[in-house]
Amino acid sequence: MITLALSKGRIFEETMPLLAAAGIEVTEDPEKSRKLILETTRPDVRVVLVRASDVPTYVQYGGADLGVTGLDVLLENGNQGMYQPLDLRIAACRLSVAVRADYDYASAVRQGSRLRVATKYVGLSREFFASKGVHVDLIKLYGSMELAPLTGLADAIVDLVSTGNTLKANHLVEVERIMDISARLVVNQAALKLKREPIRRIIDAFASAIPPAKSPAP
Ligand code: ATP
Ligand code: PRP
C-alpha cells in the first residue's frame, strides 16, 4: 500500500491532475465526506487528509509514504529526514511583508524603529528581519493576519500573497517580497527504499505533469 498525505483545499485540488498523470483518481470528494482516508482507483494507493502543517510530520515518521506540502511549511516547521524530489509548481504564492497603506514602512526601517510584526511564520520572519538588521517584536498568529495592522495589534504582517486580493480588500500593501513559495513532493526515506518501484513511478508521473514555470511577477 502507498499512502499519500494531502491537505484539503488547494493542495488537494491542485494535486489531482498530477495524480491523474499517474493513472490515479481519488474516488471520493473530501468536501462532501467526513472520511480521512480516501480510496483511489488504484487498490494499492490511498490518500490521507491531514492539516497542511502536519503533512511533513506524517511523511517524516512514516504515517504516509509521500506528501504534498508548501515550501513555507517545510521551511517554517522543518524538513529533515525527507526526500524532496520535486518542486510541483502548484499552490504558487509568495511570502511577503505587508503594512497599512498609510504606514511608512521605508522610513520606519530607515530610522531603525522597532517593528511589531504579526505572523504565522515566526521562524522565517525572524531570519528575514535579522538579515536586514531590522529589530522586530514578533507576534504569533494562526490565521487572519491581515487583521493585525487594522486593529493596532501590529505595524506589519508576514503572510502569503497570491493574487493580492486579500491585501487589497483590507487596505494593506505589500512592501517586501521575502520568497517565492510553491508546493513540494516529499517522500519518506525508508519508504523510498522499501517500495522503490511504485514510488518511483509516481514521482516520474508527477514530474511529467508539473505545470510550466510562470514568468515572475514584476
Ligand atoms: P492549516 O490548515 O494547517 O492552517 P492552511 O490554512 O495554511 O493550513 P491552505 O490555506 O490550504 O492551508 O494552504 C496550503 C498551502 O498552500 C500553504 O502552505 C501555501 O504553500 C499554499 N498557499 C496558501 N495560500 C495560498 C494562496 N492564496 N495561493 C496559492 N497558494 C497558497
Ligand atoms: C491565504 C493567505 C492570504 C491569502 C492570500 O489565505 O493567508 O490570506 O491566501 O491570497 P490572495 O493574495 O490571492 O488574496 P487562505 O485563502 O489560504 O486562507 P486561510 O489561511 O484562512 O486558509
TrEMBL record:
It catalyses: 1-(5-phospho-beta-D-ribosyl)-ATP + diphosphate = 5-phospho-alpha-D-ribose 1-diphosphate + ATP. GO terms for molecular function: ATP binding; ATP phosphoribosyltransferase activity. Pathway: Amino-acid biosynthesis; L-histidine biosynthesis; L-histidine from 5-phospho-alpha-D-ribose 1-diphosphate: step 1/9. Its EC number is 2.4.2.17. It is found in: Cytoplasm. Residues 51-206 form the ATP phosphoribosyltransferase catalytic domain. Pfam families: HisG. It comes from the Bacteria. Transmembrane segments: none annotated. GO terms for cellular component: cytoplasm. GO terms for biological process: L-histidine biosynthetic process. Keywords: Amino-acid biosynthesis, ATP-binding, Cytoplasm, Glycosyltransferase, Histidine biosynthesis, Nucleotide-binding, Transferase. Lacks the C-terminal regulatory region which is replaced by HisZ. Heteromultimer composed of HisG and HisZ subunits. Belongs to the ATP phosphoribosyltransferase family. Short subfamily. Catalyzes the condensation of ATP and 5-phosphoribose 1-diphosphate to form N'-(5'-phosphoribosyl)-ATP (PR-ATP). Has a crucial role in the pathway because the rate of histidine biosynthesis seems to be controlled primarily by regulation of HisG enzymatic activity. This is ATP phosphoribosyltransferase.
